[in-house]
Design brief:
- With about 220 residues, the protein is α+β, with helices and mostly antiparallel strands.
- The protein has helices spanning about 1-5, 10-20, 35-45, 45-50, 65-75, 120-135, 135-165, 175-200; strands at about 20-25, 30-35, 80-90, 95-105, 110-120, 205-210, 215.
- The strands form 2 sheets. The chain has a 5-stranded antiparallel beta sheet, sandwiched between helices. It has a two-stranded antiparallel sheet with strand order 6-7.
- The model is unreliable at about 1-5 and about 220-225 (pLDDT under 50).
C-alpha cells in the first residue's frame, strides 16, 4: 500500500473506485472502513450498508481455518496472496473468492488496517466441476480451444489499455484514465460473459473449428471474434 501512496491521489481514487475486483479495508477489529463498487456488485451491500459493520457479515459458517490463519498472519505484517475462500452475499448466495490481504501500517509502524482484494472465481469453479463431471478428456480439450479463441482478443485489448495507463511517458489526464479503465472493464466483462455462458450450459455441444480441432458451441447467436 505504500506504493499506492506515491501515486497522485486522483489516480488512487480512480483505481479503487473502478477496479472490478472487490476491495475491502478493515481495522484490526474487523470493522469495515472502505468498500468499493466491486464489493457492492459482488456482495450486494452498498458502501453505506457495509461501512461500520463487522466483516463477519460475509462469513460462511462452514468456512475452514485457512482464512483465520491468513488474517492472523496479515495482522502480524505479512502480505497474503491467493487464499481461496467462500463468502456470503446479502441474498445468501455463496461466492468463491481468490483473496489477497495486504497489511497497512500506521505512523507507529504497527498494522492498523487490512486491505483485502478479492477476485470472484465462482464461475471458474462451477465450470471446473462441470468439466470434471463429464469425465471426457475431449471435452476438456474442446473447452480450452474455445476459451483460447474467445478470450485472446479481449485480454489483449485490456492489456493494451493497462499498459497505456502504466506508461509514465504518456501521462494520461484523469478523464483519459477513466476512459481507459472503462474500456478495460468492458473487455473483462466480455470474458466474464463468456465464462457465464459456459457455466450455464445445460449440455456441452461442439462444432468444427480448425483442422481436427473442435470448439464448444456456446450459443447459436454468439458473435464471431
Amino acid at each position: 500500500m505504500s506504493d499506492l501512496g506515491r501515486l497522485p491521489p486522483h489516480w488512487v481514487n480512480i483505481l479503487l473506485a473502478n477496479i472490478s475486483d472487490c476491495v475491502i479495508v478493515t481495522d484490526r477489529d474487523g470493522i469495515i472502513r472502505y468498500w468499493n463498487d466491486g464489493a457492492r456488485r459482488m456482495f450486494q451491500y452498498t458502501a453505506e450498508d457495509a461501512i461500520g459493520k463487522h466483516v463477519n457479515i460475509l462469513n460462511v459458517p462452514t468456512e475452514g481455518e485457512e482464512l483465520q490463519e491468513a488474517l492472523m498472519l496479515a495482522q502480524e505484517g505479512e502480505v497474503i496472496s491467493d487464499v481461496e475462500v467462500n463468502e456470503k452475499s446479502r441474498d445468501g448466495s455463496v461466492r468463491t473468492l481468490l483473496l489477497s490481504i495486504v497489511p497497512i501500517l500506521g505512523n507507529s509502524g504497527e498494522v492498523e488496517y487490512l486491505a483485502a482484494i478479492g477476485k470472484d472465481i465462482t464461475i471458474v469453479r462451477d465450470l471446473e466441476e462441470k468439466v470434471l463431471a463429464s469425465e471426457k478428456l475431449e471435452t476438456v480439450r474442446d473447452m480450452i480451444v474455445t476459451l483460447n479463441h474467445n478470450m485472446n482478443q479481449p485480454l489483449a485489448v485490456a492489456g493494451l489499455y493497462l499498459g497505456m495507463l502504466g506508461d509514465e511517458s504518456l501521462c494520461p489526464e484523469p478523464e483519459e484514465q477513466k476512459e481507459y479503465l472503462r474500456l478495460v472493464e468492458e473487455q473483462l466483462d466480455r470474458v466474464a460473459d463468456l465464462l457465464r455462458k459456459i457455466a450455464e450450459m445445460e449440455e456441452v455441444r461442439t462444432v468444427e473449428y480448425l483442422a481436427e480441432n473442435r470448439m464448444v458451441d456456446i450459443a447459436e447467436d454468439e458473435e464471431e471474434n
